Amino acid sequence: MQTYIINRIRVKNPKFKIAHFQPFTLLELVCYHNEKKDIQRISELKTSDVLHRIPFEISRSSIALFLTEILARVLREEHSDKEMFDFIDQSVVKLDQIDTGINFFHIQFLLKLGVFLGMVPENADELLKEISSHLQLKKDSSIEKIQQMIDQNYGSDISLTKPEKSDCFDAVLDLYRIHFDNLREIKSLSVLKSVME
After folding, report:
1. Coil, strand, or helix at residue 179?
2. Could you tell me which CATH class the domain 52-196 is placed in?
3. In the chain, where are the structural domains located?
4. Tens digit of each residue's pLDDT (9 = 90 or more) over 31-79
């Protein structure tokens, strides 16, 4: 995680356009990096993958906004992690491309990200044991759905009822809240829920 400052972005002819900094926009940066400073400066940038659907479809942009907020809160390390970076980069591209599984992409992403963060067990039963003292899944069928989301790729056709989806999402969010105190209040959560229901 790095913090950057950009000057003069709202002037008539800015060097960088504000559209470059929308949630999940994938950029290649050339930066001035000063180890002694917390905030860095961007010298050049370009889009690495052009997103065709995330910026223009409300469901995808709501997911991007929500997951950007989660990532900003859970990723604190400044050292590089190529595997996690590649996972996030490829997940953004998949969110832009897939036609099925959009309505639970955010749940599946959090489950897969949790593996990199060392907090999601390999199977749903172990996951449920970890969160059982905090939240009981309302339906046994939700256990099977969580397992499918852990095992399958983005875009897989997993049939989820609204109550199952809500139950799975609550369980995964609860797991994150056990590990990260700063997720008690997620500003974009209400927007996501209203769009995705």
Report:
1. helix
2. mainly alpha
3. 1-50, 52-196
4. 888 888 888 888 888 888 888 999 999 999 999 999 999 999 999 776 7
